[in-house]
Amino acid sequence: ITLSNEGTKVLPDDMKPVALLCIGCALIISSVLLLLKSIWKSCYKTSKLPRKSTIVLFFEFLVAMGAAILTIVAMPHLDIVTNVTILNGVAVLSALLQVITQCSAKERNRFLLPSIFAFILILLGYALFLYLYITKHPTDIKMIIWVGLAVGASFLVSFNWWENYLRLISKSSSSVFLKNLCKDLTKCQNMLNILTSLLRIAVTACVLGAFVPLDKMDWNIVTSIPSRETKIIAIIIGVQLISSALCHWFSLVACKMHALRRCFILPLYLASLAVMVLFIVPVIVYYQDYRTSLNGTAINFTADIGLLTGSAVSWWLGLLLATLHLWYLNMDRIQRTQDLFIRRLYEGAFIEQSLLLNTRFDILSKDRKNKVVDTLMVYLCATMWHETYDEMMNIIISIFRLDKYRPKTDQKYTDFTFETHIYFDDAFKDVKGNGRGRHLNIYAQHLVEILTEVYGIFTNIDDNFFNKKQQIPDQKIIRTPYGGRLVVIMPHGNIILVHFKDKELIRQKKRWSQVMYLYYLLGWKLMKKYYTRWQKGEDEAELRKLCMFLQKEKHNTYILALDGDTDFQPAAVMLLIDRLKMYPGVGAACGRIHPTGSGPAVWFQKFEYAVSHWLQKTAEHVIGCVLCSPGCFSLFRAAALMDDNVMKKYSTKSTEASQYIQYDQGEDRWLCTLLLKQGWRVEYNAAADAYTNAPEDFGELYNQRRRWGPSTMANVVDLLGSTSTISKRNRSMSKPFMLYQLFAIASSILAPATICLMIAGSFTFLFQMDASIALVLAVIPPIIYLVLCFKLKSETQIKIAGLLSIMYAFLMLVVTLSIIGSMVKENTILTPSSIFVIAISSIYIITAIMHPQEIQLIFHGLIYILAIPSAYLLLSIYSMVNMNNVSWGTRETKPAAGAVTPEPSTPQTRTQKGRYQVDTKKSLLQQKIGNDLRELRNKVTFAYFMLNALWLVATFTLQLSAAVSITIPILDFNLKPTGKNIQIDPIGFMFITGFATLVGIQFLTMFYHRIYTLIHYVAFLDTEPKEEKNEPKEAYLSGKKVLKLLLLLDLLL
Predict the structure, then answer these.
(1) pLDDT single digits (tens) 625-673
(2) Which of 146, 168, 742, 1005 could be cross-linked to 619 through a Cys-Cys bond (beta carbons 3.0 to 4.6 Å apart)?
(3) For position 958, what pLDDT does the model report?
(4) Which residue ranges traverse the bilayer (predicted)?
(5) Quick one: which of 191, 186, 190, 166 has its CA closest to 177?
């Protein structure tokens, strides 16, 4: 604006259109950024067309017209001090709407008077401004026009934040039109942003294009600017555009980090003052040089400076009073952007005013401090089976740690309370003797011992070494219809309930334990009080309130799913709670799972888990939804689990072969599939760390992945088959995201053939053999292993896979070293294989650097590279061929010595004959299911390996045919041709391009996710109450006063 002023000496008068063009760029850059972001969201999120867009577009037209006229037409003719201060006057309509909003509110508010004074002060500033310029130039018609346009345009710009107050006015108004308009603005935000951005760009371009000819300037000068002026303009506009965008983003970060006052409000208040001081102080110091004019506008310094200062102070105080409510704004951690800023758009021409006025306005009543905060209820639900002593110790310590972190006996913690339920599968065994019946087995006894030991540790944690230790009293297991139950009150008042399940009384396995606690905690415990009141037949109004309270409690009740060996910190739980608390549409959130253990199998899994969380889960979180929230550490919302076709369908017993694969082999992924189909969002929080034991044995790892592989494929195919329905129901699952998942699952399916081609290329490169012979040699071992898997037992299959994995590992090591050697020998890295290896390695290294606490895992990537053929070729074959095996595969033990054996056959009674018939039916049903599973296995295996064979043949044929191949010259390190070419087949080129795009998307989304994870973590550290280090012993020993065992004789459900 200064460069376009008539009195500036930097640019000649004929070059003013260039400065005006830069002003236009500054105005529209925010609209361009919003347009791109909204298009991105419309592609990867579900967007709806607005029904009432006319009034919105009308206001946007006024605002765009006002901003363009103010900055392009009027301000270049005013002095620089006025230009700096008049921008604060755009709060005039906001101050007026604040008065109207607070007067229409039904409660007494605190900021009515500041809003009234703000409105009066801003009007006073305009009055002084008009008086100054009109009395100074009473005969200058043009100056009066510029001043009038400046005032009128300022009023038009002040319409920019009308949505901030419409929301509150509509609540207190009975107008249906206003309420529907607010709903339309919320639901159709993406499409409205696209339309308004295009409108703003068009209006600004029209004003700019029309004003230049009207002011007798020529556009042709834009193409003939000298280099000096070009550099000046480029630097100024570049700094303005970049600094405005960064200011907007850092303001958002400051608010999310709970640094609202010191890092957002105060700097924005001082920005205008700082600029005024920078320009006014030189005028005072060098008064003699500025006696006749101030940047082109002549003024009487002694007389006019008072009016100018008065208008500037009035505008600034008006802005301050109009935004005084921000100092008392209540915010949560990681406050949603749409709840923090009403509009996504910022104004590049007046960034500080737009940020302050765009922040959410609330009615703050005088008794707001007495507002009751809802207390969340979190149920920790752990499933156990055959965990070792050390594994169970991990989770029990974690639970007691959370008890200390959120003590129930301390009333100052009101954010959430929790209750722990442990469901122990197959916890009983038969004991020989005179009617001794069934007692706890060794695993369940270990859990009781661990509870005693950990309770003693946490009770005496602050005692001196030689003091008498406080131990848990003797415990008794109370018989229940499903087995037994034990209740323990932890030292700080929270409860642990251990449910010991007897497999002869109730179904075992993890999914049925989950169904058990879902129906007990949600279907009975949560619904009981509301169902009892409903049965009493209360009136309709009370029932309506009852339904509202029920929905609220369902949204505020969470279930933290845990495995029996999970180790976690309380902070991890808090970070997951934040995600569900802030975003009502989130049905589940999972944390970062770290496998623990030792040995090559665990080292492989550590890097595999790291890559899947670093890249795959972050990409799903950013552009869509996480498809699997692992049951070892995930937080679920009760309202999501109780939604239609979630809990009810999850409790369905498998009756078909495909259901055994999808329902029982990957229950965590299937539960997430049900949530996604109902429209709920599943998220990932990288800062919520949890540790779980990973299979250390090669056979256990293969058996675990034998369950996971087919179930993952079944659930993803299920989602892809319902793309149209899901994209309409779930706002986070768009068709482009489903296309991303389609390519990901296709890459996974074609992995065996891709590995074979890679091995064939390795043979060709190492031994200089013919490509056909190399392919035959590469395919023979997998084919032999495939045939053997159909004939041999699973244990033998795993042993053979282990031997082949060792052979392939040596081959991968030689190939890797050979690729490096070839790059050195040929003095080039610009071959497809070299580029691919370097690019993937660079992505993994940079990703590891972005995760500094886990950077050491990059060294485990060496094991991962060596195990690629085993993981993506042999394991795929093993998983497909053994799909009909629906056993768990891990933690399985043989019957203990001395176990009760079946009694000898005796003459059967009528009851025994009935039981025999039932057992016979079960046996026939199991036999039928076994046959169905084998038939399904045969069909899926045939289709799976037929696709791989077709891909293998097509790719290899195109590689041999030079006529249809793509020729790429090989370049040296100086990017000069070496005279050699490399041939790439079109299919291979498309696959490499697609894979590179897939990895590129994951890499970019990783950066985005890391930044917002850092914001969340910093906000958590800044707002979470600090734990006192030196608490008195009574704080820890008070638990012994309330410790007792509750002997409960109750019926489940």
Answers:
(1) 999 999 999 999 999 999 988 999 999 888 888 888 988 888 899 999 9
(2) 1005
(3) 76
(4) 18-36, 56-74, 80-99, 111-131, 143-162, 192-212, 232-252, 264-287, 307-329, 737-760, 766-788, 800-823, 829-850, 862-881, 942-975, 987-1008
(5) 166
Query: Two tokens at 76?
Result: 């270049």
pLDDT, residue 895, reads 39
User: Which residues are CB-contacts of 939 (< 8 A; sequence separation ≥ 6)?
Assistant: none
- The pLDDT of residue 687 is above 60: yes
To 10 degrees, the CA torsion angle through 533, 537, 541, 543? Answer: 40
Residues in contact with 919: Cβ distance below 8 Å, sequence separation at least 6, in sequence order: none
Tell me the percentage of the chain whose pLDDT exceeds 70: 83
Dihedral pair phi/psi, residue 65, rounded to 5°: -65, -45
Residue pair 760/775 in contact by the 8 Å Cβ criterion: yes
**Contact by Cβ (8 Å): 641, 518:** yes
- C-alpha–C-alpha distance, residues 324 and 93, integer Å: 16
The pLDDT confidence band at residue 21, using thresholds 50, 70 and 90, is confident
Which pLDDT score is estimated for 335?
Answer: 80
Q: Which residue has the tokens 């297991």?
A: 477
Any residues with CB less than 8 A from the CB of 678 and at least 6 apart, and which?
Answer: 587, 640, 643, 644, 645, 646, 729, 730
What is the DSSP code (8-state) at residue 294?
B
Q: Give the span between the Cα atoms of 467 and 471, in whole angstroms.
A: 12
Q: DSSP secondary structure string, 231-268?
A: HHHHHHHHHHHHHHHHHHHHHHHHHHTT-HIIIIIHHH
Q: Quick one: tokens of 874?
A: 């042999």
What distance in Å separates the CA atoms of residue 629 and residue 621, rounded to the nearest whole number? 11
**Beta 633-637 vs 557-563: how paired, if at all?**
antiparallel
Cα separation, 731 vs 580, in Å, equals 16
Task: List % helix, strand, coil for the chain (3-state, nearest 5).
Answer: 65, 10, 25
**Count of Cβ atoms closer than 10 Å to residue 329 Cβ:** 19
Query: Degrees (nearest 5) of the Cα angle 926, 927, 931?
Result: 115
Cα distances from 25 to residues 201, 247, 349, 752, in angstroms, run 9, 17, 10, 52
DSSP for 30-44 reads HHHHHHHHHHHHHHH
Over residues 872-897, the pLDDT tens digits come to 999 999 999 999 888 876 665 543 33
Contact 117, 309 (CB under 8 A): no
Alpha-carbon distance 23 to 240, whole Å? Answer: 10
Give the CA radius of gyration of the chain.
Answer: 35
1047: DSSP letter? -
Query: Which tokens belong to 954?
Result: 């097509």
Report the range of poorest mean pLDDT among 136-150, 484-498, 934-948.
136-150
- 785: CB partners within 8 A, 6+ apart: 797, 800, 801, 804, 874, 877
- Model-wide pTM > 0.90: no
Strand-pair category, 376-384 with 416-424: parallel
pLDDT on residue 1047 = 26
pLDDT digits 0-9 by tens, 213-233? 887 777 777 767 777 777 877
Tell me the pLDDT of the chain averaged across its residues. Answer: 82
pLDDT at residue 700 above 50? yes
CA dist., res. 947 & res. 970, Å (int): 33
Q: With a cut of 80, say whether residue 699 has pLDDT above it.
A: yes
Specify burial of residue 228 (Cβ count, 10 A radius: 0-12, 13-18, 19+): exposed
What are 83's strand-pairing partners? none
* Residues 302-354: tens digit of each pLDDT: 556 778 888 888 999 999 999 998 888 877 777 878 778 888 878 888 888 99
Q: What angle do CA 613, 42, 55 make, to 5 degrees?
A: 140
Burial of 984 (0-12, 13-18, 19+ CB in 10 A): middle
Query: Residues 741-757: pLDDT tens digits?
Result: 999 999 899 999 988 88
